[in-house]
Design goal:
With 146 residues, this protein is mostly helical. It is 74% helix and 0% strand. The longest helix is centred in the first third of the chain and has 27 residues. 20% of the residues are buried. The model has no long low-confidence stretch (mean pLDDT 88). It comes from Dictyobacter halimunensis. InterPro entries: Homeodomain-like_sf, HTH_AraC, HTH_AraC-typ_CS.
């Protein structure tokens, strides 16, 4: 599959995900405030922005410091708030998001080299190791079973 087509599909998916986030934000604004969980995270502007960045740019070599800077919070305040609201630390969330995205891409027949590149892994080998560690099976086996 040509890379331009993959990029176009990625942009379309991103637009859909951003639209979904906006719809959820509007719905959240109409609800009673939540103290924790996804609704609280999306209702908190800096954390919602960080989640949007992680979803939009999963290939970026994010650090907690980078995310905190992007949303204008100190590293410690950002990390504590993110963990409290989302239920896990930012880098753990990013890994889970990357793996979730990888499973979808594997089901779509996208090459492991392309997946590794689009999700921020330095090599296909690094991606395979991370996938096996997180999902419990190698990506090639996962692809065959789905």
């Amino acid at each position: 599959m040509p890379s331009a087509l993959l990029f176009s599909r990625g942009v379309d998916r991103l637009k859909t995900e951003l639209l979904f986030i906006q719809v959820i934000r509007i719905w959240i604004d109409q609800q009673e405030p939540a103290s924790s969980g996804w609704l609280a995270a999306l209702g908190n502007p800096p954390i919602a922005a960080a989640l949007g960045l992680l979803h939009q740019y999963p290939a970026r070599a994010w650090t907690v410091e980078d995310l905190a800077s992007e949303v204008a919070l100190s590293r410690s305040a950002f990390s504590a708030r993110f963990t409290q609201l989302v239920g896990e630390p930012p880098m753990r969330y990013l890994t889970r998001w990357r793996m979730h995205t990888a499973t979808r891409m594997l089901k779509s027949g996208i090459t492991m080299e392309t997946i590794a590149s689009q999700l921020g892994y330095a090599s296909e080998v690094a991606f395979r190791k991370a996938f096996r560690r997180e999902i419990g099976v190698p990506p090639a086996r996962y692809r065959k079973t789905t």
